[in-house]
Amino acid sequence: MVTSDMDATIRFWRDLIGLRLVACLGRPGYRHYFFEISETDMIAFFEWPEVLPAVPKDPGVPVKGPFVFDHVSIGVESDEELWELRDRLEAAGLWVSEPIDHRFIHSIYTVDPNQINVEFSAPVPEMDIRRDPLMTDPAPCEEARKGADPVAGVFPEAYRRTPKAERIVYKGD
After folding, report:
1. Is 80 exceeded by the pLDDT of residue 68?
2. Would the pLDDT of 27 be above 90?
3. Which domain holds residue 110?
4. Residue 147 covered by a domain
5. Is the four-CA dihedral 144, 100, 87, 113 of positive or negative sign?
């Protein structure tokens, strides 16, 4: 993600949403900060002082022309946590949607200081899409008709495994 105001971004993601700021990298004119979502997931922001915020758009509403990103969705543990988060967003004076029932999750939507659409979603306890995938599209695309599980042979197998002696990790900024 990209911002021109890292301070506002930190206040939103760390102080309001509650994500830990776990890495702050930078050099003059450039920052790259990471917030922890879970033990294995992070959301990262570059600060580019000249970048403009995204043009506001409703999540999931189609657009015409070049486009890269619609919204990010972050899970919370329960409906109780979802409502608590909604109350915090409203108390901060931010727009937040009413909860939406997507059958397998309940979601709220808001916008961060960079005009990035953010969905927060809580699982519906009786719906386990990891155990029983929800495939209700009446006209699924060709690949979806093949099912939820990975299909072997679609891509070639790695023809060569990189030997440990050749595994070089290059220094970053």
Report:
1. no
2. no
3. 2-166
4. yes
5. positive
When pLDDT is averaged across residues 121-142 and rounded to a whole number, the result is 89
Q: What is the largest CA-CA distance in the chain?
A: 55
Task: Report, as an integer, the average pLDDT of 128-153.
Answer: 87
* Percentages (nearest 5) of helix, strand, coil residues in the chain: 15, 25, 55
Measure the CA–CA gap between 82 and 87, rounded to whole angstroms: 9
Number of domains in the chain: 1
Asked if residue 9 lies in contact with residue 114, where contact means CB atoms within 8 angstroms, the answer is yes
Whether residue 173 lies inside any domain: the answer is no
pLDDT band at 30 (very low <50, low <70, confident <90, very high): confident
Long-range contacts of 56-64 (CB under 8 A, 24+ apart): 56/111, 56/115, 57/117, 58/117, 59/109, 59/117, 59/119
Within-domain flag for 81: yes
Look at residue 172 and tell me if it is in a domain: no
Cβ-based neighbours of 44, under 8 Å, separated by 6 or more = 1, 32, 33, 34, 35
- CATH number, domain of 12, equals 3.10.180.10
In terms of DSSP bridges, do strands 105-111 and 117-123 run parallel, antiparallel, or are they unpaired? antiparallel
Q: Taken in order 81, 87, 92, 94, is the CA torsion positive or negative?
A: positive
Cα 149 from chain centre: 22
Distance in angstroms (rounded) separating the CA atoms of residues 17 and 19: 6
